[in-house]
Amino acid sequence: MRSRAARGQSLVEASLGLMVFVTILLFGIYFAEVGALTLKVQEAANFALWDATGRVHHNPEAGDWGRRGVVADAEAEASGRYADFDGRERMGGTGMPIQQAIARAQPIQVQCEAELPAGVPRLGPAAAGPALDAAMNMGTQGMSCTASSRLRASRIGRFMEDRFHTAHRRAAQAFTVCAAGRASGDRCTGRFGIMLDDWGLAGVAEGRACPLSIDTGAPCANGDYYHWTERIYRANGGGGGAGSALAGLVGADSVNEDQFFMSFHGEEDNYEENIGATHAGGQSRWETTPFEAPNIPSYNAGRHNHWLGMAR
């Protein structure tokens, strides 16, 4: 009788121990999966931010800066890539839940706004001056993003559904995971933010050369730079009237001082172009940064193999 009682006690103890062990094991796996999926939700929001920085933000010729459409495009790209929590390719928004060993997650939803988060300083007349503010048709100075997903535990079974496991059942219920902060009423209010655009020239098109052009800029492959520079020239009064006044004093023909000349060349052109023997003692080269004329020693800046003509 004593031996049978001992065996019965061992069976009860083993059953109770297995119930505790299996519960800990299942929820250990579940919480690990929740942690990994939460990191992917954060990654989706940050992907949208950094994807936006690689897009075309401005058109200086049109005075268009901080295009708001960039934010919507980045949001769509992030939502398409992270619908399945992977991010390596677009899934086309399948809408299918993701099932892991225990955790079941709805596709990530990325939400971005063409506004900086609250409390982030804005660029405006007070910071940049009214002239800059008026010259730039700025759609947005930055963006803010968050991402979310609904997670719950599945494949748990019904062994924990008695009145002693209320806390466990509650832990297995669906809840919202946010990229930034915790959900408030299943809404993600926290956001990551980033300022967009450098309000300057960048990229291949905005780095091309411009042959010498007068007023039109037609042959220039870098129209943004040409027209932007011309606007600055016009805004500062153009050429003025000193040359015409001098020509009048000596009886010479007046000159059109409002003509805008521009030549822009980089290292790939050795900072120069051939325009014929028209200047600097018959030199045929029009140089754009420090002038160098081999037959005029005083103009030899010694800039060969030096960036912008300055020795390193």
TrEMBL record:
The keyword Transmembrane is annotated on this UniProt entry: yes
Keywords from the named record: Membrane, Transmembrane, Transmembrane helix
UniProt keyword Transmembrane helix present: yes
TM ranges: 12-32
Top-rank taxon, per record: Bacteria
The name this protein goes by in its record: Pilus biogenesis operon protein
